[in-house]
Every structure is written in structure tokens, then in C-alpha cells.
Amino acid sequence: EPEVTQTPSHQVTQMGQEVILRCVPISNHLYFYWYRQILGQKVEFLVSFYNNEISEKSEIFDDQFSVERPDGSNFTLKIRSTKLEDSAMYFCASSGTLEFWQPQHFGDGTRLSIL
Amino acid sequence: KQEVTQIPAALSVPEGENLVLNCSFTDSAIYNLQWFRQDPGKGLTSLLLIQSSQREQTSGRLNASLDKSSGRSTLYIAASQPGDSATYLCAVNTGNQFYFGTGTSLTVIP
Fold first, then answer.
1. Are A98 and A31 in contact (CB under 8 A)?
2. Shortest alpha-carbon distance between residue A47 and chain B (Å)
3. Rounded to 5 degrees, what angle do the CA atoms B37, A25, A71 make?
4. Cβ separation of B31 and A108 shorter than 8 Å?
């Protein structure tokens, strides 16, 4: 069964550094998402992406965050200048062919640790 | 703002028991609701998706119901097994954004 893959599985970065988290969504999906989960807390929506642009973003997704689909397969989340509070598990998800109300499929996540 | 609550936060049952997990949401203007399973250190596995126009969905031993007007969904697990031990999350879709509950941590005791 096709799956969403995320790399790396664990990223350790110094505070203030830029980090790029990578995701390969399921190949025929059109909708892409990033979520984060701080340890012990809820999964929180960050951003949704469709047709090469952001569809919706949450209050968390401020100017230090950006997303990109640089080619036909990858979907990336960039954090420009990391802070300690950015430490979390980041999940990528994809869904949908023509209708977005289809199940979201999640990757196993990237654990981001900011030192 | 949509708030999603799951009760109970943790549940421990003996193997073979039927159980119900609850999810409530504050804004009934949703497109669908999805139930997920999360194993420790892992991503989320989709279990069931209920569209706003549907009342329930079934997959194997799992049955999810949705009462949109009252802002409630339940996940029924029949004949629980130790392999069902995980955290169960519900998420509501309000358009392009999903709101997750805090989850119910389920332990099935052999």
C-alpha cells in the first residue's frame, strides 16, 4: 500500500539555525499538510497546500515557517530560525484525488530537537 | 474556534471486552471526522472517516458514529485485543484545517 515517507526521522539542530523537513506524499494525492505534536500535547495543524499554494494556515505558522513543493514528489517544511519551542514531532500528511474530503494519510514523523 | 475533546483520557480493559471511545467538538460545521490510531513514536494510522452526511462507518471490529448536530462521535471497538493498545485520536475537518483531540490511551490487558 502506498505510504507517506518523511526524512529524516530525527533532526537535531542548534537554536537559530534553519532546518528543512522533507516529505514524499502518496503519488496521486493533491492535498498536503504539515502538523506538529509537542511532547504530551495535541496534534496541531500547521498548514495545508494545494495546487502549489497554501490553502490554509494556523496561527502557529508564522513568518519563520514556509512550505514548498520543489518538484513533483517532495513537499518540504522550512523553519528559518529555530527556537527551543519548535522542538516537536512534525508530521506530513496527504489526501485526496479530486475531492479533498478523503482520508488523510500520515507519515511516521520527524522528531525535531532544538538545542 | 473549534475545540475537540476526548473522554476518557485513558482506558484499561481486559481482552475480549467491547469498549467505546468518545469525541466531542464545539462547532458542528464540519466536513468530516476521522479516527486515527497512534502507536508510541509512530505516525497516525487512519481508521475510519465519516463524512458529515453520514451517521456511521464500519471497518472490521471498529464502528464509528457521528451525531453532527450534537457535536459527538463515538468509536466502538468490539472484542478488544492486546494489539489494539494504542492512543486513539479523533480529528474534525472544518474545510482545509483539521482539529485534533488529545486522544484516549487504550490498554488491553491479556
1. no
2. 8
3. 160
4. no
